[in-house]
Amino acid sequence: MTHPAEQNAPTTPAAIADEDTVTVPAESGFYGKMVDKVGTVFAIGFLASMSVLIIEIIMRHVFDSPTLWAHETTTFLCGIGFVFGGLFCASRNKHIRVVILYDIAGPKMRRALDIAISMICAVASGFFAWAAWLMVGRAAFAPDGSIRLETSGSAWNPPFPSLLKIFLLIVMVALTIQFVILAINYMRGLGGKDAKS
Questions:
Q1: Which residues, by range, are in coiled-coil regions (predicted)?
Q2: Which of 29, 56, 148, 185 pairs as cysteine with 190 (C-beta 3.0–4.6 A)?
């Protein structure tokens, strides 16, 4: 006897290929699709950081002339990529969750869990956005209110620490919005047979 989910599973190669190409669930909405598209930029950032490291290796070991900027640049590029990764995973609904209860729940209970998880994550992301705002206040503004970006303090001294904190704030606000969209769409029952059952 087959499981009901297996009876409705696609069997033709075309149907399976179509299912594999859908990376952003309907519940993430247009917003999630835009986040998914922007992800390519950060993937290229990881490739750029690898290129910078290769340049640094050549400069250091072939020409005996190491750069001042390679280490901080690669750290910054990877840092913003990892920060964006949380938003990217949420837009694809691939964020980490404990699935002991989720896997044994029926469709209605899964929908209720999806709503609860999205709402809790939205509140948590909102708190983290507030904490990021406090960090940005110290990293981007002088006590008199003028803009003064925090720098690394190295010989090159780029403003990467403050830029990373500003980017974290933007991503945490965007993540909060994504979880609110997910919660609303789960409540409305968009996007799948499980949600409609």
A1: none
A2: 185
